[in-house]
Write a structure and sequence with these properties.
Layout (H helix, E strand, L loop, with lengths): L1 E2 L5 E8 L5 E9 L20 E7 L1 E3 L23 E13 L8 E11 L2
């Protein structure tokens, strides 16, 4: 992430529960006048968390975004970013489905392939 010469930027991750309510919010601030800094926002999700929302506010540039659900920060690997990509959904295996106001009550295992085009 790069920031404006005089303005800091903020990355926030909201944990969302099955009803669509925000459980907690985690934030990281990147100071003004920073170029190409990797932002890491480690967190341990609540037992009620079923989804996350990621917000970036005030950044001048974002590059190579990644989200990993791992115990430690992962090194960059193949797939570090491209101008265009095609995502092919290879399969879906429903695990849970029930209706709730914000539609967070559906869960499924999915497999997909990402083809980088340039």
């Amino acid at each position: 992430m790069s920031t404006h010469p005089t303005t800091a930027a903020t990355v926030s991750v909201e944990e969302v529960d099955p009803e669509g309510a925000v459980v907690r919010t985690h934030r990281a601030t990147v100071p003004a006048n920073v170029h190409a800094r990797r932002v890491v926002l480690p967190m341990v999700a609540s037992l009620r968390t079923v989804a996350v929302r990621i917000h970036v506010i005030g950044a001048l540039m974002l590059a190579l975004p990644a989200v990993t659900l791992t115990r430690a920060v992962q090194p960059w690997a193949s797939g570090r970013g491209c101008i265009n990509a095609v995502v092919h959904m290879a399969g879906e295996d429903p695990q849970l489905a029930f209706e709730v106001p914000h539609d967070w009550g559906r869960r499924a295992g999915r497999s997909f392939t990402i083809h980088e085009l340039g």
